């Protein structure tokens, strides 16, 4: 798969307990991105964060927290990301979605030049 030098970064901020399409939302997003043949998706788990409720979500030992913050990142061509946004809107009800233009410096599958 070849990604152009200029691409778009889709960043989706959600909670660990959020659900979509009958499963954890982060999982649903990654599976839909794969079905849409996007270049890849990464889920990042946050140790501390807050959202619109201003309630802190943390991994501190003395305070068990569920619903930790997650960020799903996807980089691909702008038209492919825009098409994916329509799919995302059909099953995502909560969260923050951002887009930014990025410059891809390197994208190589393992073992290739």
Automatic annotation (TrEMBL):
It comes from the Bacteria. It holds the Pfam family DUF190. This is DUF190 domain-containing protein. Belongs to the UPF0166 family. It comes from Mesorhizobium montanum. SUPFAM superfamilies: GlnB-like.
